[in-house]
Write a structure and sequence with these properties.
There is one protein chain. With about 150 residues, this protein is mainly α. It has one domain (about 1-150). Helices cover about 75% and strands about 5% of the residues. It is built from four helices and two strands. A two-stranded antiparallel sheet has the order 1-2. The two termini are about 20 Å apart.
Length: about 150
């Protein structure tokens, strides 16, 4: 029973840490997606890829913040050294970045084609696509990071 409660606590803490990281990632994506096209005009459509630099930079912000939230609040130290743990975390995160970028492209092109208007706040297709990609990749990230990076 104690294990079950601890597991639920860990999942809750992972959701909170992931939520904070997602807020940082989505916020930085919004900033990058507004200002980068002013500098790099192909940012909105670079050979069919929409907002590639905004995605990469914002995902990097999310990854780094998530690493620190994970080691501070979610997972206990595993069997790996700090350097190896960080390397595994970053390797998994880089693979997740490509997966997230692919999900973003699919959502942006095919799923979220219009704004979602709540009256007091409007979600653009870019932000909706980013949120959906983060949610999908987060489920995979929890499982893999728990078993590979922070295994004890």
């Amino acid at each position: 029973m104690k294990e079950f409660i601890l597991k639920q606590k860990q999942i809750l803490l992972f959701i909170i840490a992931g939520g904070l990281s997602a807020i940082l990632e989505i916020g930085s994506f919004k900033i990058f997606s507004v200002y980068l096209p002013q500098v790099f005009s192909q940012e909105t459509n670079f050979h069919g890829i929409h907002f590639p630099l905004s995605n990469i930079f914002s995902t990097s912000c999310g990854i780094i913040s998530n690493y620190f939230f994970s080691i501070w609040f979610v997972f206990e130290r595993g069997k790996h050294s700090k350097n190896r743990e960080f390397a595994y975390f970053m390797g998994i995160s880089i693979a997740s970045t490509f997966l997230s970028l692919a999900f973003f492209q699919v959502f942006f092109r095919f799923v979220f084609t219009d704004n979602l208007d709540f009256g007091f706040f409007v979600f653009s297709p870019e932000i909706l696509s980013k949120i959906a990609a983060i949610v999908l990749v987060s489920v995979l990230n929890y499982s893999v990071k728990k078993k590979v990076v922070f295994s004890g």
